[in-house]
User: Which sequence fits this backbone?
């Protein structure tokens, strides 16, 4: 049974900014209302500058998400434009390959790079919703449609 969702910032750190805190809080509550347990990976809420300047921390979060057996779904916070910078940190000494296991991985946009990388490692992924754009920001009418497909 799916219960814990690990929210991860692999591209943009926008969910760590004060000006979107109300949306993040709304998204967390919506997931809890569905009976899910949302958690944020260690660096996910550190903000735009930190996330941009530390691809190694983003890679560490992805490795942790696959290592942690309590996490059922890895949900990308949002897209962005520089996920490719994680690759050296994920494949150095086969770090990601050593912990990889089938989990639900969900995201879109810049996350396409992650989908390709995980596909190459034999993981099936879902190109779809993100936390900020689809759970936090949808109005109630669209949210009901989304929940039917989630």
Assistant:
């Amino acid at each position: 049974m799916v219960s814990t969702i690990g929210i991860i910032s692999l591209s943009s750190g926008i969910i760590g900014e004060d000006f979107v805190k109300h949306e993040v809080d709304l998204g967390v509550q919506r997931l809890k209302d569905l009976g899910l347990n949302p958690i944020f990976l260690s660096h996910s809420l550190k903000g735009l500058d930190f996330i941009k300047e530390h691809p190694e921390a983003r890679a560490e979060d992805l490795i942790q998400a696959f290592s942690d057996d309590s996490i059922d779904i890895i949900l990308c916070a949002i897209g962005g434009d520089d996920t490719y910078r994680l690759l050296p940190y994920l494949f150095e000494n086969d770090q990601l390959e050593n912990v990889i296991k089938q989990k639900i991985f969900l995201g879109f946009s810049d996350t396409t790079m992650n989908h390709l990388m995980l596909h190459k490692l034999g993981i099936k992924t879902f190109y779809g919703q993100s936390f900020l754009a689809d759970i936090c920001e949808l109005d109630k009418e669209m949210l009901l449609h989304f929940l039917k497909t989630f």
User: Anything to note?
Assistant: The chain has a mean pLDDT of 92.
